[in-house]
Amino acid sequence: MNILLIAGHGEEDPGACLYSRREATMARELVALLQKELLKYECKCGVYNPDLSAYHQMITLGKPYDFTMYDYVLEVHFNAHKSNADGKVQGSEMYVTSGELVTTLEERILNNLAAIGFTNRGIKCKDFAVIKKAKKQGVSSALLETCFIDDEDDMMLYLNNTELVAKTIAYAIAAEYGLEKKVQATFRDTEEHWAKKDIEKVAKSGLMKGYYDGTFMPDNFVTRGELATVLSRILSK
């Protein structure tokens, strides 16, 4: 699985602006967090050069770009509609091209963002230039309008939950494509343990993965269920 993240606008185009907020800057910050979260899963995740505007390079200048090495392209933006703080969150929406027949991933992303508190504004069909170029090369693509940069209610919710927004988008992508979390080879309770090297070896092999809290509990008794899991993994190899 290979994912490409694109931050909208850039170069001489700041995108939507309000006060000190610039859409291009916020999109790049979110893309960096999203890449960090996606790389926790068994996948590759690239980022389009943040110093450049994908639209300007590919569309205005007509420079070619090979999307075929990727399985999914997500372009990140922030919306704007000159709203004031009115106690209502305007929310998130996604755009897909007219050639996109399946939108289950985009539905997952919007549902996950809605769980944080953003209004689900739905999936809309529009052939935006960059994602259309990706789709023409046979790669599924979508454009996310994360929330409204000029709505104070949206911004308060987003700025208080920025990392959670990145996590929940990454989780939606991982769930849609069945991506497993990468095996943690170093555990916080094995640093001084006599079996540290062997523990790291079996962890890297995928035979034993430790616990969700980052521990391995190396001196605990093994349950029959845990033994069955390890034996199953050995047999599958």
Describe this structure in words.
There is one protein chain. The chain has 237 residues and is an alpha/beta fold. Helix content is 38%, strand content 18%. β2 (17-18) and β3 (21-22) form a beta hairpin. The mean pLDDT is 92.
What is the fold's blueprint, element by element?
Blueprint: E1 2-7, E2 17-18, E3 21-22, H1 23-38, E4 44-47, H2 54-60, E5 72-79, E6 92-96, H3 104-116, E7 120-125, H4 129-136, E8 140-148, H5 152-159, H6 162-177, H7 196-205, H8 224-236
Contiguous helical run count: 8
> Tell me about the biggest sheet?
6 strands, mixed
- What quaternary form is this? single chain
| CATH-assigned fold name of the largest domain | Aminopeptidase
CATH superfamily of the largest domain: Zn-dependent exopeptidases
Task: Report how far apart the termini are.
Answer: 21 Å
Highlighted features:
single chain; 237 residues; alpha/beta; Aminopeptidase; 2 domains; two-stranded antiparallel ribbon; 8 helices; 38% helix; globular
Question: What's a concise summary of this model?
Answer:
This protein has 237 residues and is an alpha/beta fold. Helix content is 38%, strand content 18%.
